[in-house]
Amino acid sequence: MEKFAAVYLVNGHGSKNQYKYPETLQADLQMVITDLDLRHGQGNWLAGYGGDPYRPTSPDIAHILRIMHQEHGVPVIAVQCDLFEHAIMHPEKSETYAHLQDGAVFFYETKYWVDPSSGQRNVLYGGYQTVREDGAQSEVLVGGSSIWFDPEICKLLAGHIVIGGGRITRDDCRACQAFGVPIYYIKAPAKYYFEESEALMYGEIDMWMQNITVWHVPYLAGFLEIGPNFADEIKLMQWRLS
Predict the structure, then answer these.
(1) For residue range 71-102, what is the model confidence (pLDDT) as tens digits?
(2) Which of 46, 53, 165, 194 is the most exposed, fewest CB within 10 Å of its CB?
(3) CA–CA separation, 156 vs 216, rounded Å?
(4) Cα separation, 217 vs 225, whole angstroms
(5) How many Cα atoms sit within 13 Å of 147 on the Cβ side?
(6) How far apart are alpha carbons 9 and 6 in whole angstroms?
(7) CA angle (66, 67, 72) in 5-degree steps
(8) Could you give the CA distance from residue 84 to residue 81 in angstroms, rounded to a whole number?
(9) How confident is the model at residue 1 (pLDDT cuts 50, 70, 90)?
(10) What is the DSSP letter of 46?
(11) Local confidence band at 185 (pLDDT 50, 70, 90 cut-offs)
(12) What are phi and psi of 237, to 5 degrees?
């Protein structure tokens, strides 16, 4: 990663939520990518994400990375647990990880946590996890988040591009806040969410964003709001091109 002028973590809606208006993503990304190309030079900055597979019928964060790579020539690195090493290195369809061509993938050891109520073992993909030791309780970053915000890696992060997202995206933004990493936030509605809670239409990340003082956070590099008619209704709330 050190050979690039900058590295940007990219987070957003996963396969469970997906994007409600995927046709608007090109316009959204164009503004961010144009800015970063001006800052660092085209092809001189790297986009990193969690290694989700691209599925044509499921527009999620992998769809974003595919657009960035194929339409804008952005190199991509995936950081994923080794549980999916075979699936990534030997995909059934070449298009699944075509966006990693000329890029890279980093595998870390898969770790689990056990749900005390059900006894079910779950993969720790990322975000903060509560741990208890010697009677004390604390939060630690796990999974891919522990890699991205490792001090040696985090110092390479020039920013965090957020296009919707859930708990892990929210927690990664919390880590950005702690480490002073700038955030580019695009408010993007999810296709699937709990209907009884419209507050989750844009993902847990949006609830977190609404609870911070947007106009007084220096690490918020950009803030866009999109809708079904993005080209006509774009609201540039804040965009710093410094």
Answers:
(1) 999 999 999 999 999 999 999 999 999 999 99
(2) 194
(3) 24
(4) 18
(5) 21
(6) 10
(7) 115
(8) 6
(9) confident
(10) E
(11) confident
(12) -80, -40
| C-beta of residue 171 within 8 angstroms of C-beta of residue 128 | yes
Query: In the chain, helix, strand, coil percent, each to 5?
Result: 35, 25, 35
Angstrom distance (rounded) from CA 19 to CA 25:
9
Number of residues written out for the chain: 242
Residue 83, both tokens: 């549980």
Strand 183-187 and strand 157-163: the pairing is parallel
**Residue among 215, 160, 158, 224 nearest 188 (CA):** 224
Is residue 32 within 8 A of residue 69, CB to CB? The reply is: no
pLDDT tens for 222-232 read 555 433 333 33
Q: Where do runs of H (alpha helix) occur along 41-166?
A: 61-72, 85-89, 143-148, 151-154
Of the candidates 87, 13, 5, 82, which has an alpha carbon nearest to the alpha carbon of residue 46? Answer: 5
Question: φ and ψ at 220, to 5 degrees?
Answer: -85, 100
Output the pTM of the full model.
0.86
End-to-end CA distance of the chain: 23
Tokens 């995206």 belong to 169
- Alpha carbons 38 and 33: distance in angstroms, whole number: 8
Question: Are 29 and 57 contacting, i.e. CB atoms less than 8 angstroms apart?
Answer: no
Question: Which residue in this structure is represented by tokens 């239409």?
Answer: 201
Q: Tokens 């800015």 — which residue?
A: 35
DSSP-assigned letter for residue 93: S
Residue with tokens 């369809």: 93
238 beta partners = 223
**pLDDT at position 231, please?**
33
